Amino acid sequence: MLNRYPLWKYLLILFVIVVGLIYALPNLYPEDPAVQISSARGDATLDDGQLERIRNALGKADIPIERIDTQPNGALIRLASGDDQLKARQIVAGQVNDDYTVALNLAESTPAWLESLGASPMNLGLDLRGGVHFALEVDMDAAIEQRLQVNASAIREALRDARIRYRDTQIDGRTLSFTFASAEDRAKARDVISRQFPDFQYADQAAERGATLAMTLTPKKVQEIQDYAVEQNLTTLRNRVNELGVAEPLVQRQGPNRIVVELPGVQDTAAAKRVVGATANLEFRLAARPDTPDSQTETLPFRNDQQRTARLMRDVIITGENVSSASVGFDQNGRPQVNINLDGTGGTLMNRATRSNIGRSMAVVYIDNKTRTRTVMENGKAVEKRDNYTERGIISLATIQSALGNRFRITGLDSPTEAKELALLLRSGSLAAPIYFVAERTIGPSLGAKNIERGIHSVEIGMLLVVAFMLIRYRAFGLVANLALGINLVLLVAALSLLGATLTLPGIAGIVLTLGMAVDANVLIYERIREELRAKMPIQQAIHAGYERAFTSIFDGNITTLLVAVILFSIGTGPVKGFAVTLSLGILTSMFTAIMVSRAIVNLTIGGKPVKKLWI
């Protein structure tokens, strides 16, 4: 019989609609405005007394509290209104000390029964949910200096292997200089070094005592080092952001030496800054012997006790770049430690260094590049100057009991939080050069709420115009198309929520475009039905022919648009990808609703029944 679906097809359509409703429902529960209290260091905790003082202070200011959720290193205060957020933030900040950071946040309010089904609202982008925007600058001079230090260590080893004595090593800008006892030693050294290090321009220089060989990096090599530093830092920052679990973050290069990081939904800038901007790295060095020349050693303090120092070799065995994985654990005394796995090169170097130095001490050096800002007067105006500096401290100094390989552990850490963050930084990879924050912007949830309100209004207006047009143009069949359009919107929202896609303002534009395009298929079907009716075809046959014969045109039109959306997604970034995702999903859901759902409605209402006149 014409225009009748088998039972399984009706059940399939009903199942898809019900699932779509369930997974679209969480988006009807708006996030609660909240104030986030978190430890600035990562290891401080709030006690009941502090929370009670905060509750009383907010009560005196007539700011209603929904509830307070305690967290491992802070608390989340849910408020009844977004208008109270800024006021509450100021009050809470006055109740805690500098060990805590107070930030605006949004907290999910999805019912427990929906969460048990894995249903959650759509992820919102930076422009809708708010978040943090960082601009970081890569220290190119430090990148070159670090590469020269690595080369200096390798050259010293090559000279020792060749039994050529040297007196001193200096790094000045892009130049690495070695001083030798005589010009004859310098000539031998130049012959050895130039074969292994072709990226230098060599020059002989006079010295007060002895002879100096100056090696300057070529411009091509300098550019290569700088490009590598930015690209490696990009990779490392992406890994760190992924460890934070932020949905759809943006990490991209900007200009020759800058990187932009956007973290939607993150209002706790202290935690984000501590992980993203951390420049920590590790160096493993042998302790110096008593008879080692001062030029080959360096005295460093212990990180947790500045009064204690140790004299170490300048040569580095391995750095954090050789770490392939890192995890947190505890020693037999319950103190935190980091378990380290090295890559093949790191394991070989570590084994070689420890195998011949059993009984000698080895230090783990923690290196952190920092920035301090000072205000100076220039031309009568106060100008902020940024000074970059490096802190080096010994985490542990232990005696080598046996040859080490690819696995060992680091102890001497202050807290489990510090061990966790160190393991995270080592897992995500070390930075090829220090990075410094040059700009920081927080987009508050209130601004995101305004953007969401405008986006919803645009969807409502677009949908109302389409609904009105279809009702006026196609009457009863227009009502069928509008029902299918509403189901299409529900399914699209459910698909975005299920896939964890991030909705941005361009994504909302994609939804509005989808609503307009969704009825195109119905227009083609209905116009085809009209043509068949004008050709005096029976009503049931005309409906059947309209759906069957319009399918090819509908498929061709949508597949070309889908291909364009796929191309946009593959070559686009950030907002362009968000637009492409919503457009692609919208095409798929509109094909389903316009062809199957609308036809199911028509089949259930008039399919197989005698119809004298068709309102279309």
Automatic annotation (TrEMBL):
Upper classification of the organism: Bacteria, Pseudomonadati, Pseudomonadota, Gammaproteobacteria, Oceanospirillales
According to the entry, every stretch annotated as the SecD export protein N-terminal TM domain falls at: 2-104
Keyword match rRNA processing? no
Similarity comment: Belongs to the SecD/SecF family. SecD subfamily.
Query: Known InterPro entries for this protein?
Result: Acrflvin-R, SecD, SecD-TM, SecD/SecF_arch_bac, SecD/SecF_CS, SecD_1st, SecD_SecF_C, SecD_SecF_C_bact
Q: Which Pfam families match?
A: Sec_GG (PF07549), SecD-TM1 (PF13721), SecD_1st (PF21760), SecD_SecF_C (PF02355), SecDF_P1_head (PF22599)
UniProt keyword Protein transport, yes or no: yes
Q: What is its main location?
A: membrane
**SUPFAM superfamilies xref list:** Multidrug efflux transporter AcrB transmembrane domain
Gene3D superfamilies named among the record's database cross-references: 3.30.1360.200, 3.30.70.3400, Multidrug efflux transporter AcrB transmembrane domain
Where, subcellularly, is it found? Cell membrane
Protein translocase subunit SecDF P1 domain boundaries? 230-287
Q: What is this protein called?
A: Protein translocase subunit SecD
Recorded superkingdom: Bacteria
According to the record's subunit comment, the protein's assembly and interactions are: Forms a complex with SecF. Part of the essential Sec protein translocation apparatus which comprises SecA, SecYEG and auxiliary proteins SecDF-YajC and YidC.
**By its UniProt entry, which HAMAP family does this protein fall under?**
SecD_B
Q: Where are the transmembrane segments?
A: 7-25, 455-472, 479-501, 507-529, 550-572, 578-602
